[in-house]
Design brief:
324 residues; alpha+beta; Elongation Factor Tu (Ef-tu), domain 3; OB fold (Dihydrolipoamide Acetyltransferase, E2P); Helix Hairpins; six-stranded antiparallel β-barrel; 47% helix
């Protein structure tokens, strides 16, 4: 019995000492700015999600921003027009050049049709000339024979004179056909010259159209990649300088990072390479493991790989870190 009583007394005394010297767990402390410290070795900070890979898109020419064709948060594809810089006058110039090209093409078509018609007439004139020469050769032989017979008194004078008149008529026909053939040949040369001039004028108009289209394309800011617009600078109706950034496009929406800004005392206990846990506050999802990528100017950057396309740059995230 005495031993039992002694054991009970020892247990009561030990319990009292244990309660006296037990260390209470530190409570959750919420810091200004959304930071909460848990048990002094773990901290949760809030920040924004941003892409790791960004492609800047600059203005290709100086001028006035005519219009923006894409906004922040919009998915874009390679070659898509994002903005126009002073494109109103350039569009008018392109339309005028296109109209001039159409007119030039019509002129060339008409000139080529004229050449075809002139060559057809020249071919007909040459055929008529050839027939006239053949007729003249035949009548010249007949007239020479009749002349010989007439001088010998073997043919009547009327027959000789008729042959002579036919021969002289054939000479006149040949002269007319020759002039017609020469005129047709000259018409062909003139039509060819007009066609060449029309083609040269068309080439000039096409060059002007290419230049106008090039100027218009230079004034259009186009996306060089597929991605998501995460930033846009400038204002419609305001000037912009050539080379200045107008857009920023995220090219890999699965390679993300969260930027948080801890207090100086906490910052001293964070090192690059530390493991972290990223919770997307806008989504009901489990935490995503990440690592401290770098620390720059008091900003801690935690990189992580997104597990769903629903996570977008600009969303709020809670980053949980174990302090050293």
């Amino acid at each position: 019995m005495w031993l039992s009583l002694a054991a009970v007394a020892a247990g009561v005394g030990g319990g009292a000492l244990s309660l006296r010297y037990r260390v209470r767990a530190p409570a959750l402390v919420v810091r200004p700015g959304g930071a909460a410290v848990i048990a002094s070795s773990e901290i949760t900070l809030t920040g924004k999600i941003r892409p790791q890979h960004i492609t800047p898109v600059a203005a290709a020419a100086s001028g006035i921003i005519d219009a923006f064709l894409a906004d922040v948060g919009q998915d874009v594809y390679t070659g898509q027009a994002l903005a126009r810089i002073g494109a109103s006058g350039l569009e008018s110039a392109r339309e005028s050049a296109a109209t001039a090209v159409e007119h030039g093409q019509d002129q060339v078509s008409r000139a080529e049709a004229g050449v075809a018609s002139a060559r057809l007439e020249a071919s007909r004139a040459d055929a008529d000339l050839a027939r006239a020469r053949m007729a003249l050769d035949r009548l010249e032989k007949t007239w020479a024979r009749q002349q010989t017979l007439y001088q010998a008194g073997a043919t009547p004078r009327l027959a000789y004179e008729k042959t002579e008149r036919e021969y002289e008529g054939a000479q006149q026909d040949l002269s007319i056909m020759d002039k017609a053939a020469r005129g047709a040949a000259e018409q062909v040369q003139s039509a060819v010259a007009q066609t060449n001039a029309a083609k040269k004028a068309l080439a000039d108009r096409i060059r002007e159209l290419d230049e106008a289209q090039g100027n218009l394309q230079a004034a259009e800011v186009r996306s060089p990649v597929d991605g998501l617009v995460v930033a846009r600078n400038g204002e419609a109706g305001k000037p912009v300088e050539e080379g200045s950034d107008l857009f920023q496009i995220a090219t890999d929406l699965y390679a993300l990072e969260a930027a948080v800004e801890p207090e100086p005392a906490v910052l001293k206990r964070i090192r690059p390479g530390q493991q972290a846990l990223v919770l997307v506050l806008d989504l009901q999802s489990a935490g995503i493991p990440g690592d401290v990528k770098e620390i720059q100017g008091g900003i801690v950057v935690v990189e992580f790989a997104s597990t769903t396309p629903a996570i977008k740059p600009g969303m709020q995230a809670a980053v949980r870190l174990k302090l050293e």
